[in-house]
């Protein structure tokens, strides 16, 4: 903490530091993030039929997202390592049929939130999907990665405006 008990990533000299959360209460915290990978219809059909040369794209991407959530503190500077109690990553065909929607849910009981873990899970799941399909569709796009909802902690509930209108499942 810096002067006045305010949490900050800057110390008194203005240098970047990891925030000291040792005085924060342990509470249940959850976060949901979403994203999308858009692609050609032929690419989506290959994924769904199991015809992608690198194997089961959805299963590998799901596992990659879960693993990434667990490694977020190793990837994002100044992010706290957290004991995650639950991580779920869902990948489903977008309602418009033009890609795959990704949703990550992350939960913990801790002194700080899991928004970065949920966002990292979606990002890595999307990158893995791209990597596994790029040989047949280099024009895919990774789009709209965002925090949909978070709860717990001092700041309470955040819900993105329009949350729930796009529901890829989990």
TrEMBL record:
<feature type="active site">
    <location>
        <position position="131"/>
    </location>
</feature>
<comment type="function">
    <text>Catalyzes the conversion of (8S)-3',8-cyclo-7,8-dihydroguanosine 5'-triphosphate to cyclic pyranopterin monophosphate (cPMP).</text>
</comment>
<dbReference type="Pfam" id="PF01967">
    <property type="entry name" value="MoaC"/>
</dbReference>
<comment type="subunit">
    <text>Homohexamer; trimer of dimers.</text>
</comment>
<dbReference type="GO" id="GO:0006777">
    <property type="term" value="P:Mo-molybdopterin cofactor biosynthetic process"/>
</dbReference>
<keyword id="KW-0456">Lyase</keyword>
<keyword id="KW-0501">Molybdenum cofactor biosynthesis</keyword>
<feature type="binding site">
    <location>
        <begin position="78"/>
        <end position="80"/>
    </location>
    <ligand>
        <name>substrate</name>
    </ligand>
</feature>
<feature type="binding site">
    <location>
        <begin position="116"/>
        <end position="117"/>
    </location>
    <ligand>
        <name>substrate</name>
    </ligand>
</feature>
<dbReference type="InterPro" id="IPR047594">
    <property type="entry name" value="MoaC_bact/euk"/>
</dbReference>
<dbReference type="InterPro" id="IPR050105">
    <property type="entry name" value="MoCo_biosynth_MoaA/MoaC"/>
</dbReference>
<dbReference type="GO" id="GO:0061799">
    <property type="term" value="F:cyclic pyranopterin monophosphate synthase activity"/>
</dbReference>
<comment type="pathway">
    <text>Cofactor biosynthesis; molybdopterin biosynthesis.</text>
</comment>
<comment type="similarity">
    <text>Belongs to the MoaC family.</text>
</comment>
<feature type="domain" description="Molybdopterin cofactor biosynthesis C (MoaC)">
    <location>
        <begin position="18"/>
        <end position="153"/>
    </location>
</feature>
<dbReference type="InterPro" id="IPR002820">
    <property type="entry name" value="Mopterin_CF_biosynth-C_dom"/>
</dbReference>
<dbReference type="InterPro" id="IPR023045">
    <property type="entry name" value="MoaC"/>
</dbReference>
<dbReference type="InterPro" id="IPR036522">
    <property type="entry name" value="MoaC_sf"/>
</dbReference>
<protein>
    <recommendedName>
        <fullName>Cyclic pyranopterin monophosphate synthase</fullName>
        <ecNumber>4.6.1.17</ecNumber>
    </recommendedName>
</protein>
């Amino acid at each position: 903490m810096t002067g006045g008990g305010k949490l900050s990533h800057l110390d008194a000299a203005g240098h970047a530091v990891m925030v000291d959360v040792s005085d924060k209460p342990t509470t249940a915290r959850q976060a949901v993030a979403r994203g999308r990978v858009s692609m050609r219809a032929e690419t989506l059909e290959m994924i769904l039929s199991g015809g992608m040369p690198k194997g089961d794209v959805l299963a590998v991407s799901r596992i990659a997202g879960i693993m990434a959530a667990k490694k977020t503190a190793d990837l994002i500077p100044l992010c706290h390592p957290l004991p995650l109690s639950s991580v779920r990553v869902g990948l489903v065909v977008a309602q418009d049929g033009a890609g795959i929607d990704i949703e990550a849910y992350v939960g913990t009981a801790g002194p700080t939130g899991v928004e970065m873990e949920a966002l990292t899970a979606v990002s890595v799941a999307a990158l893995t999907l791209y990597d596994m399909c790029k040989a047949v569709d280099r024009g895919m796009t990774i789009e709209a990665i965002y925090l949909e909802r978070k709860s717990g902690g001092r700041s309470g509930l955040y819900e993105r405006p329009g949350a729930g209108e796009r529901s890829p499942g989990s």
